[in-house]
Amino acid sequence: MEVERVKPDIVHDVVGTFCPVPIAETAKVIKTMQVGQVLELVADDPGVVEDIPAWCKATGQEFLGLYEDEGEYHLFVRKVKEL
Amino acid sequence: MKIRAVALFSGGLDSALAVRLLQDQGVEIKALHFYTGFCITEHKRRLGLKREDGSLYVNPALKAAALLQVPLEILDISEEYFNLILNPKYGYGKNVNPCLDCRIFMLKKAKEFMEKEGYAFVVTGEVLGQRPMSQTFDRLMLIEKEAGLSGYILRPLSAKLLPQTIPEKLGWVNRDQLLDIWGRSRKKQLKLAKEYGLEHEQPAGGCCYLTDENYAHRFREVIRVEGSIAREDLVLLAVGRHFRLPSGARLILARNEGEVRFLQGFRHRYDYACRKDGKGTFGLLKGRLSEEEFNLVAGLVARYSKNQPCEVLLSIGGRETVVWADTLSEELADSIKIYKRKGDKHGSGKS
Question: What is the pTM of this model?
Answer without folding.
Answer: 0.79
